[in-house]
């Protein structure tokens, strides 16, 4: 800690990170041990975080992340969208297809940024706010592939045809190595099959977006 930082705020943020990393919550004693502070300090931290709905405690006394964190999380979308736009514009113009950034929203894939090419005679209409199940369409399937990837290597790109719209094909690659953000970058086009060069180009764009978000 330096003179310019707040020890209390630092501890509160560490509490949130610890709770975010567990599915079953943590007790005051467990938090006390992990933070290296006494239980009284932990009680005060939790009480403050509860007032802002960032933490909740169940009947057994275990602390968990509160719904207030979700409200903060919704504000992340505009920041992520802004960071991704340069790579999406380049991808759309290069491929001549509608490019999109898709993030996980519950059990759905949610398009949060869409860029259409400027020089094509026609392209697929795809709007920000469009959502679909994660197991349908290239964007969602790419995200699922990242979840299933092992330490042996990073997931590649995913190709689909006709899963979300008849006659449309898609290619997408997951965002890799971005803490707190689960999503993919892709394109959708009116074609029976995705041209060979599109998959690697989408993979490059996904890396560009991931780099911008780190």
From TrEMBL:
Alphabetized GO MF terms: DNA binding; DNA-binding transcription factor activity
Keyword set includes Transcription regulation: yes
Keyword Phosphoprotein: no
UniProt domain IclR-ED: residue ranges: 68-214
Family annotation (SMART domains): HTH_ICLR
InterPro entries for the chain: ArsR-like_HTH, GAF-like_dom_sf, HTH_MetabolicPath_Reg, Tscrpt_reg_IclR_C, Tscrpt_reg_IclR_N, WH-like_DNA-bd_sf, WH_DNA-bd_sf
A single GO BP: negative regulation of DNA-templated transcription
Domain HTH iclR-type: 6-67
Record keywords: DNA-binding, Transcription, Transcription regulation
Superkingdom of the source species: Bacteria
Annotated protein name in UniProt: HTH domain-containing protein
Species, as recorded: Streptomyces globisporus
């Amino acid at each position: 800690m330096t003179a310019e930082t707040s020890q209390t705020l630092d501890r509160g943020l560490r509490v949130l990170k610890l709770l975010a990393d567990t599915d079953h919550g943590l007790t005051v004693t467990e938090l006390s041990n992990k933070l290296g502070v006494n239980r009284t300090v932990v009680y005060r931290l939790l009480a403050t975080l509860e007032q802002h709905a960032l933490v909740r405690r169940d009947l057994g006394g275990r602390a968990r992340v509160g719904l207030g964190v979700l409200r903060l999380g919704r504000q992340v979308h505009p920041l992520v969208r802004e960071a991704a736009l340069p790579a999406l514009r380049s991808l759309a113009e290069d491929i001549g297809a509608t490019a999109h950034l898709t993030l996980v929203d519950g059990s759905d894939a949610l398009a949060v940024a869409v860029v259409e090419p400027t020089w094509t005679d026609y392209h697929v209409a795809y709007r920000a706010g469009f959502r679909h199940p994660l197991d349908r369409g290239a964007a969602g399937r790419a995200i699922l592939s990242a979840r299933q990837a092992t330490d042996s290597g990073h997931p590649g790109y995913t190709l689909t045809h006709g899963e979300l719209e008849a006659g449309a094909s898609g290619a997408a690659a997951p965002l890799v190595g971005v803490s707190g953000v689960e999503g993919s970058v892709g394109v959708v086009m009116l074609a029976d099959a995705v041209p060979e060069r599109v998959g690697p180009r989408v993979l490059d764009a996904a890396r560009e977006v991931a780099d911008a978000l780190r």
